Amino acid sequence: MSSEHVIRVEGVTKVFPVYDKPSHRLLQMLSPGRSKHRWFREFRALHDVSLEVRRGETLGIVGRNGSGKSTLLQIICGTLQPSVGDVHVSGRVAALLELGAGFNPDFTGRENVFLYGTVLGLTRREIEQRFDEIAAFADIGEFMEQPVKNYSSGMYVRLAFAVAVNVTPDILVVDEALSVGDEAFQRKCFARIDRIRDEGATVLFVSHSAGIVTQLCDRAVLLDHGELLVGGSPKFVVSRYHKLLYAPPERLQGLRMAIAQEMSDADERCDKGGGEDDADLLPSDRDDAQLVKSSRERPFSEEGEDSHGWFDEGLVPKSTVRYDTRGALIGKPHLETPAGRKVNVLRAGDEYVYVYRVKFTEAMKRVRFGMLIKTLTGLDLGGGASSLPDQSLDVVEAGCEIEARFRFRCMLDSGVYFLNAGVLARLGEEETYVDRLIDAAMFRVMPQPERLGTGIVDFGVRPQVDMVESKEAGA
Ligand SMILES: Nc1ncnc2c1ncn2[C@@H]1O[C@H](COP(=O)(O)OP(=O)(O)OP(=O)(O)O)[C@@H](O)[C@H]1O
User: Fold this and answer.
1) What per-residue confidence (pLDDT) applies to 290?
2) Which of 174, 215, 336, 388 has its CA at a distance of 20 to 30 angstroms from the CA of residue 236?
3) Which residues in the chain come in under a pLDDT of 50?
4) CATH of domain 308-445
């Protein structure tokens, strides 16, 4: 394996024995070694799969249910052995596989942290050093001392993720698990995955969400019936995945062959923006992803207080990070209606104000303020600055407190979003951040029952459909 590649899968086939009745498993075990009769059928979950993953690359693995994604990940992680073929993996692999994998249900959370850490090659001392950080990330309180069989699925994932991201993995494997848990925790996980990628780790990501794969991954592969059909840019691969997903059964076989034939061309489309992409003609994937659950939705009335939204105390980001503080401190970030009522559950189409305060402990020159709205996965959607650089506040004295207000119209699809805040000033010749709060606040946009728009941002598209030729006129 070249030093550039950290994973190489060569001609891997995986065959599982399938027993029609539970008693057949027992009969097979009792059959003499040379007995010709087999009490099972063979099911081929993977067929001749070859794949290379480079150091630092984020690879998305997509495919319909039962296509072999989890089997492939388990083989890469070493928890399953291939029936045929070879797998070479270099470095520490931390895996967040489907629920149920990894932990011993009878052990407490704490014991499992030590068990899992040891399996990943950490010494007891190393795990002890990281334990507090793992516990803080998991944020499951007293449950850390309870057997994990008493955990909810959300708690289980929290602990599993906390361990996986805190063992400094060379390769992080994430299998759909992030769809469990609340949005604030999901955002924290995506932010941590970003950091792990920035530090040069390789990430394998199994997801049914086209949005996540296209946004997070450098490259993707499509598995179908255990075969690797195609690989290439995420947009290209996701569009082929969608074609398969929505194809009528009679066209499926022909489509599979056509996609497999494109395989040879796909390498040329490896840049993220490149590639033929017809995914946007297909039904939105935001619903099948369902990452943004509407757990705290409630119907809104057209009139009265709630019609412009309300405040949900549970919507508190867990991924807030402060960068760059140098004589200025951002505080109290929140959203208000134009009338000044604090809200964080918004109605699409209405206007809101993003407000935060900044305390200056040092005098500053050329000061201005900024904001940014992001998705749960960290995609920058848009924002704004309080002024152009040459129109910034000339001087702000030490001891001053300034309130920055950004009025905007909420042109977003239903879901959960995050807000950044930043203060810029001239230090020497350079304009630089003097305080920056990432994921300072979060908000939810209520579902819109009559929405015609698709995608995250509502451009206010006004459709018009005209009959340009009727049958009678053409006859
Ligand atoms: N231990 C096993 N014994 C028999 N069949 C198995 C076993 N594990 C997996 N399979 C079968 O192998 C196929 C691939 O399963 P796998 O879980 O890898 O698919 P997947 O793409 O991850 O699916 P999903 O998206 O539903 O999680 C499925 O048909 C599954 O039923």
Assistant:
1) 34
2) 174
3) 99-100, 268-305
4) 2.70.50.60
- The tens digit of pLDDT for each residue in 138-158 reads 989 999 999 998 888 788 888
Q: How many CB atoms lie within 10 A of CB 458?
A: 19
- The pLDDT assigned to 275 comes to 43
pLDDT digits (tens, 9 = 90+) for 234-245: 888 888 888 888
Which pLDDT does position 242 carry in this prediction? 83
Give nearest CA residue, ligand 1 atom 3.
16
Looking at residue 397, its amino acid is: E
Expressed in angstroms and rounded, the spacing between residue 65 Cα and the centre of ligand 1 is: 8
User: Which region holds residue 167: left if phi is over 0, alpha if psi is between -120 and 50, else beta?
Assistant: alpha
Q: For the range 110-115, what are the long-range contacts, defined as Cβ-Cβ under 8 Å and sequence gap of 24 or more?
A: 110/144, 110/145, 112/148, 112/159, 112/163, 113/159, 113/163
Q: Where are the domains of the chain?
A: 5-91+170-286, 308-445
Query: Does the C-beta of 130 come closer than 6 Å to ligand 1?
Result: no
Between CA 108 and CA 87 the distance in angstroms is 33
pTM confidence score: 0.71
From the CB of 319, is ligand 1 less than 6 Å away? no
Q: Report which residue type is found at 221.
A: V
Q: Is the CB of 117 under 6 A from ligand 1?
A: no
70 lines ligand 1 (CB under 6 A): yes
Q: DSSP letter string over 189-215?
A: HHHHHHHHHHTT-EEEEE-S-HHHHHH
Pairing of strands 430-445, 321-323: antiparallel
**Residues 28-53: tens digit of each pLDDT:** 777 766 666 777 778 899 999 999 99
Mutating to test ligand 1, I would choose from 9, 14, 16 the residue with most ligand atoms within 8 A of its C-beta, which is 16
Kindly indicate whether the domain formed by 5-91+170-286 is annotated with CATH number 3.40.50.300. Answer: yes
